[in-house]
Amino acid sequence: MTSLARALALSIGQLRDPAIRRVLFKTLGLTLALFAALGWAASFGFQAALEWAGLADGSGWGALLAVIFALTAGWLLFRLVALAVLQFFAEDVVRAVEERHYPDEAALARTIPFAESLRHSTGATTRALLANAAALPVAGLLTPTGIGAPLVFWLVNAVLLGRELQDMVWLRYRTEATARAPLARPTRFLLGGAIAALLAVPFVNFLAPVLGAAAATHLVHRRMRSETL
């Protein structure tokens, strides 16, 4: 836990790094643009549905329903979309952390081709969607408890995020000789759990994906260093 706390502290301290801020603005901007496009498309869909039902009266109900839909989708899907977007810029975060803290290792890293990044991003998003969909029935049963449903989703996403954040760093160094994941499962779970919790906090959730990628960089490199000693 101490190593995770230190990794997060170092990541927060590097938020002022221009390279990190550029990634933060790009991921946030693209994520919000995607949800804006979703709301725009939904407004036409709701308006068409109202017209089909004979309820279109020019009162703006279609636009209102679209706004409610976009806000609800944003609350439910923000972490999935933000992390999917981050996959394309993760290398910039990892490189910025490596240049400051792990310059020797950075010289050995490979550049991940766009096709491979797309494949990993698609796979991560698909796993997240399927896992969260599978958790829905359990969460529904636990909704009356108040805490049960959020806890189920936190547990699911802690496992998923730990793996995806590790791979953002590890894939730059993975070879046949280093095919075993560098982070132990408890460490991955703690990392994923911390970021999943941050993603549930309004406004802080904008920073969470970048903080997660930066913290994973510290954890993976410290682990790889310890294995070479």
TrEMBL record:
Task: Output this protein's name.
Answer: EI24 domain-containing protein
Q: Where in the cell is it found?
A: Membrane
Say if the entry is tagged with keyword Transmembrane: yes
What membrane topology does this protein have? Multi-pass membrane protein
Question: What is the originating organism of this protein?
Answer: Qipengyuania spongiae
Q: Which residues cross the membrane?
A: 23-43, 63-90, 129-156, 189-216
Family annotation (InterPro entries): CysZ/EI24
Primary site of residence: membrane
Keywords of the record: Membrane, Transmembrane, Transmembrane helix
